[in-house]
Protein 1
Amino acid sequence: MNFVAILVMLQGTLYILDSITRMLEGANFKIGSNIILSTNFYFIGIIFGAIFIISSIGLLKKRKYGYFLALYLYAILIIYYLMAIAYLIINQQYFLAFYCIAVMAVFYMIINYVRKNKSEFTK
């Protein structure tokens, strides 16, 4: 279970770092209120990454909130990737759609692993 918790923590950290990097890149080229309007989307990535980190702490300590957060977050990501696959197939970018399917398979394996070890979670 520690491997999955570390994987979830790394994913959350990467979401945060990616959002901060994109915010700083956008700030270099835009002046005034455009900075505020363009960075609102990236705050969602920071919040989502923080929730991933909280979930990984719960998985490390074997708490029920970590269990439920991990299941819900990865279910949301699978739905997001299903929409991305549909979009990529419509735009005839099949290689990227195959990449999304591979990433979704990893997410599904994480969900199954967490569900099978439900009895380890307390409090």
Protein 2
Amino acid sequence: MIMRVTCGFLGLVLLGSCGTPEYRAEQSLCRAEWQQKIPPRYEQQLVERVRYEQRPTGQTNCTTVGNQTSCQQVMTTISIPYTAVETVDVLSSRRDVQIEACTVRACAARYGNPECKTGS
């Protein structure tokens, strides 16, 4: 299964995705460098995915106002797992680790801290 990195996921990765403008600038320079050193290698892989569907439960909810009765089917959400073929960069995780390490080093050298925080 392929894992996508998002804000809130693991310490250093968090800094890279959601950091200061200075951090993102340093990260951009590191990304360009490491894209050259570890270029993407795309391969097709089988991945597990899930899609969601609404299905009727067989129950209905009816309400009556005056002499009018209206009924609606009660629905439930079900998950349906499936396998898909996707093209993925098999070197992205290796490259991302190097980009984050490079960014932290650059921030520490330039700003004196790994987050590139300025004195303000």
Protein 3
Amino acid sequence: MNNAGIIVATLVITIGIVVIFFYYLSQRKKRNLKTIAADWKAFQNAITHQRIQAIERLGTQLVYNEHITVKQMKEMSRVINTLENEHKELTELKWIIYNKRKDWSKQYPRHFDGPMM
């Protein structure tokens, strides 16, 4: 195989991997959008019935869902902070929620928005 063939094959394989990756991301985003309401309802139900393992599992799923709102994150944080004193199993979830909220409140620097100094 000559150099041009190798370059074309490499380019085709690379573009194929990128297309598959973005297709996977779009499918995951659609799946998250479909399940956010049911997961939130199940999380609230688990809180009502004090099922700690379910709270931990569903809370982690909700934090990593792309469609969760700031209001829902604040509610989760409030509930987990009150339950964490009695149930130490929720400490990891508390830190995951804390890091997600901290990431959302980050102020990103503006890059170039005027004359150079």
